[in-house]
């Protein structure tokens, strides 16, 4: 059980309510949307977290879709964090344990970043990352901005993980901050960088830049290497890099914009490209080792060689390569969807007409029923996978009261000569009663540093209210998975507190506001426990 405890404590975080509205399904009468003004405010926590971790999470229905069957024999990881393969594949190298270096400080940073990267990758790509993709995103996020924590001055708290610039037409927009950057020759210049409401938003844009705008995943696929990925990243204009050796040999022009824009123009540009890409890949390789060691991954992607990367890129993309990634055959850009939709609708009506007056077991009808069944299976599987990826929510302030009550099952309906005959039939399910108060509604308006501060009208933009909204969405889901036509499966909610995990469901959840304390709310809940586990901890004694 110590592994479960470690998973929960690593994956738990102060996630925004948008994460849960995207990954959970609800009855049709619950609508969620983000406040468009949220990007203009910086939420503040009323006080630093401390004490025991109180976290609430979701366990999806204990089923796995196999073919057209629901297999209930599967077990599901409690946090949805993918486990590493047992051994490295060909071309990959075993990771070294770096979790205790630097007193474990950097390892803790890498572990904390993993949950945000997983959420971001699934949000952007609609699937789980491979370990090679996840490690590469880790390395780029740390290399660029130390997961958004390496900024100084006005960029502090911007949640910009990838040093992402604002587009030219929005340099002075409300979501942009003027800052200093440097070009591939090391020359400083002023530019506006993006700012994001949450760390997950910043990580999502990093993922988008790496894997959507650029085809970096091709360099990390089967037989891939870090050198291939970094080669793609530079050729598709993500980074310029520095090449002091090439500049010393071929002159300053070798390291300028010309090498970045036209890396095959001459010997100087080629030498600069090789030096910059090799340096970038070696640094990523070193960072991946630190990340993998911190997160317990069994291997890291192989470094590869520059020659192999150059040949791979030339055979895949051509000499200069494409910028921005290819458009897939099923992309909206590849055809007229309105026209295609009309044709498919006409075809469907024609096929439907053929089924009239036909026997129930006709081949056409059988295919239609099979297609509907497969569609239901796919939607069920997708919904279960989304719920499995839902991270545990950590409350910024723990409940003020938390009690677990047990009771006996009693039968006193029979009477004897001396009164009722009381019979005890074992234990009933335990009940948890909890109540608490969230922190004050603090937020800063980026256009007005003096406001709003603590206020009720802007509570949507406060960290405490967002934390409470996320808890409310977990209650509303209550572990149930709803699909169209009222088809549903039932999972569970779990509460983690004081080294114990309680699995069950909410019975009730109430919120009250008091005029005497206008900048906060109180809540209470009742929870029925179906199973409880006391998790092991590692204790050390002096």
Helix-strand blueprint:
Blueprint: H1 2-11, H2 17-23, E1 41-43, E2 54-59, E3 64-66, E4 69-71, E5 93-94, H3 105-125, H4 131-145, E6 176-182, E7 188-194, H5 199-212, H6 216-220, H7 226-235, H8 244-250, H9 257-261, H10 267-295, E8 299-300, H11 306-317, H12 337-355, H13 363-388, E9 393-394, E10 401-405, E11 408-416, E12 419-427, E13 431-437, E14 442-445, E15 448-454, H14 463-477, E16 480-482, E17 488-490, E18 492-497, E19 500-514, E20 517-534
Antiparallel strand pairs: 1-14, 2-9, 2-18, 3-4, 5-8, 6-7, 10-13, 11-12, 13-20, 14-15, 16-17, 18-19, 19-20
Helix pairs in contact: 2-14, 3-4, 3-5, 3-10, 4-10, 7-10, 7-11, 8-10
Strand numbers in spatial order across the main sheet: 9-2-18-19-20-13-10
Name the overall outline: globular
Number of helices: 14
Helix content estimate: 25-40%
> Any idea how many domains?
3
Task: Report, as a whole number of angstroms, the end-to-end distance.
Answer: 24 Å
For the biggest sheet, the summary is: 7 strands, antiparallel
Provide mean pLDDT, rounded: 78
Strands, count: 20
Structural class: alpha+beta
Q: Give the percentage of residues in beta strands.
A: 15-25%
| Computed Rg | 28 Å
Q: Low-confidence segments, ≥5 residues, pLDDT <50?
A: 72-88, 321-338
Fill in the keyword field for this structure:
globular, alpha+beta
